[in-house]
Amino acid sequence: MSDELWSLIEPLLPEPGPKLVAGRPRVPDRQALCGILFVLHTGIQWEYLPQELGFGSGMTCWRRLAAWNEAGVWDQLHLVLLKRLRSAKQLDWSRAVIDSSHVRAARRGPKAVPARSTAHGRAANTTSLSMARASRSLCR
Predict the structure, then answer these.
(1) Range of the domain at 45
(2) Considering the domain boundaries, does residue 56 fall inside one?
(3) Considering the domain boundaries, does residue 55 fall inside one?
(4) Does a structural domain hold residue 140?
(5) Rounded to whole angstroms, how far apart are CA atoms 32 and 55?
(6) Rounded to an integer, what distance in angstroms lies between the CA atom of residue 88 and that of residue 85?
(7) What SS3 state is found at 65?
(8) Spatial distance between the Cα atoms of 2 and 33, rounded to a whole number of angstroms
(9) Residue of 31, 24, 26, 27 lying closest to 9 (CA atoms)
(10) Per-residue model confidence as pLDDT tens digits over 44-102
């Protein structure tokens, strides 16, 4: 990860809480972020994140991702990056897509008309039998 990108992300990260128990030192946020990006880029499972890469364990990276998600880091980063791209006039709106899963529709479509019945009267119930037939058992 470039120093420029890290300088944008670092101020958005929440301060870590105090350690409740003694143990291993906390994995630095930059290394954990690199581990998160590695997993998301490669598609490997969290538990298979190689320790040799120095990102910490997969569970550490997963917990950090969840904590940052809960703190709204990714939404804030998205806004920061959009602002930078907009100021540099590098946003290409010709490739933008919007749908109802992201934005509520302003107007409703035409009301659906109830389907007409195809039969004259009610249909016979074919799921129940009379009690006399239903209670008869072949195994006595």
Answers:
(1) 29-91
(2) yes
(3) yes
(4) no
(5) 5
(6) 5
(7) helix
(8) 12
(9) 31
(10) 999 999 999 999 999 999 999 999 999 999 999 999 999 999 898 888 878 777 777 76
Kindly state the tokens that stand for 53: 């890469």
46 contacts 65 by C-beta, under 8 angstroms: no
Please report how the helices 29-42 and 58-70 are oriented relative to each other, as an axis angle in degrees rounded to 10: 100
Given phi > 0 = left and psi -120 to 50 = alpha, else beta, which region is 54?
left
Q: Which residues contact 84 (CB under 8 A, 6 or more apart)?
A: 8
Q: How many domains does the chain have?
A: 1
pLDDT band at 1 (very low <50, low <70, confident <90, very high): confident
Q: What is the CA radius of gyration of the chain?
A: 29
pLDDT per residue as tens digits for the range 31-57 = 999 999 999 999 999 999 999 999 999
pLDDT at res. 115 = 72
- Please name the residue ranges forming H helices in 1-140: 3-9, 29-42, 58-70, 73-87, 131-135
Check pLDDT > 60 for residue 17: yes
| CA distance linking residue 129 with residue 96, whole number of Å | 59
Report pLDDT for 128: 58
